[in-house]
Amino acid sequence: MCFLPHPVVLQQKFTPFKMYSSFFINYIFPLNKILIYNSLFSYHIYIIILAMIYSRRYTSLKKRIFLIFQISAVFIGTVVGAGLASGQEISQFFTQYGYKSFLGILICCIVYITMSIIIINLSIKYKLNSYDGLILLVSPGFLGLVTNFLTTFFLIGGSSIILAGSGALIHQYFGISRWIGIFFMAFISAVVLFRETKGLIEINSIIVPSLIIVILTLFLLYLIFYRDIDLSLIKNIPYRKNNWLLSSLVYSGFNILCCSGVLVPLSLSINRKKSLIAGAIIGSLGLTFLAFIINFLLILNIPYIFKYEIPLLYIANRFGKLFQTMLLFIIWLEMFSTEVSDIYSVSKNFQEIFNISYNKSVILIILIAIPISQVGFINLISFLYPAFGVVSFIFILQCIIFYIKDCRK
């Protein structure tokens, strides 16, 4: 027989439970709700802070990528110039050596990357402001003074020739005075140069992508209209010269020395080693890509291209006047880009040597370049480039030796 407790007894037994339960409901549960709400609020604050951090990181990454692109554009714009854009440099230093010229272009790429890294590291470490400081650092003797003088002479000579080329181009295609073309180039160069490093970066960020688009379009049009190209025949195309390796080293030599005029002050101005090195590497790869395409097009048109001062214009002529005009405009823009780079380099040098303001240096160099702007473009590439290239190659060796010794300290 089962005895159940009396209801009163049962109520008395469970009174403590009722007390605890009412305490929990009245006090603990509201407190717990407050804690939960506080936790949710903290969680939202945490999410907002996290979003802000990642937003800043994303913005910072975006800015860094854009900076790398700008540096690579400046690197390409400094090296390319009218000589490469027209095909004349590629023709003289690579195409006439036949299929081995592609190996020469690859060697140039290796030299560009290696020397850019060395120049950037030395410029940041020793806080160099111009190519004068770099040359005297790695070659403090008589050879350094000779290299410095030849570099300055070459850059001013190059800017003079570009002024003359601008005048000739405008006179030939628009029938107006050469001097209008010369003064127009000088004036807009001065306007950009007065913005210093910002101006140099801005114009190359526009000109270089335009150059790549036009050259790539020419290449694709050629492949579309001439589908029966047999790549195996490139090896059998006759070549004029054999010393392709020396030609590649000379070409990369003077390009690197000219680039140092921009890379050194750019390194001091930006002072971000990783971004500078990444930009120089991408720029070197971009230059190699362009040189490969131009060399490929020129090799397929041997021997006709050797009859023209602007070999690429001969190829572009097949695709109509519009494309020919576009190529001419790009060549003029590259002349402008090189003019700005050359005067910028020498101005930074004059600023350091003669202790005069940068703007005064710009005006002085333009005034020097205008009267001597009557030398033939083809003569500059044929005679001045190889001589300067030999000196530049010696400079490269000195840079490498100094850098290795400096790293061991």
What do these coordinates show?
This protein has one domain (47-408): Hydantoin permease, CATH 1.10.4160. The protein is built from 14 helices and no strands. The chain has helices spanning 7-13, 15-86, 88-93, 101-126, 131-138, 142-174, 178-193, 196-225, 244-270, 273-299, 311-316, 321-353, 358-369, 377-408. Helix 5 runs antiparallel to helix 6, helix 9 crosses helix 12 (321-353) and helix 9 crosses helix 14. Mean pLDDT is 80; it is low at 1-21.
Quick overview:
By secondary structure, the chain is mainly alpha-helical. The chain has helices spanning 7-13, 15-86, 88-93, 101-126, 131-138, 142-174, 178-193, 196-225, 244-270, 273-299, 311-316, 321-353, 358-369, 377-408.
**pLDDT average, as an integer?**
80
Kindly name the structural category: mainly alpha
Q: Under the CATH scheme, which class?
A: Mainly Alpha
Domain count, please report it.
1
Estimate percent helicity.
Answer: over 70%
**Straight-line N-to-C gap:** 102 Å
Shape: globular
Question: Secondary-structure element order, as H and E?
Answer: HHHHHHHHHHHHHH
**Alpha plus pi helix count:** 14
Share of residues in strands: under 5%
At the fourth level of CATH, the homologous superfamily is Hydantoin permease
Indicate the radius of gyration in whole angstroms.
33 Å
Low-confidence stretches: 1-21
- Sheet bearing the most strands, described? none
Quickly give the CATH architecture.
Orthogonal Bundle
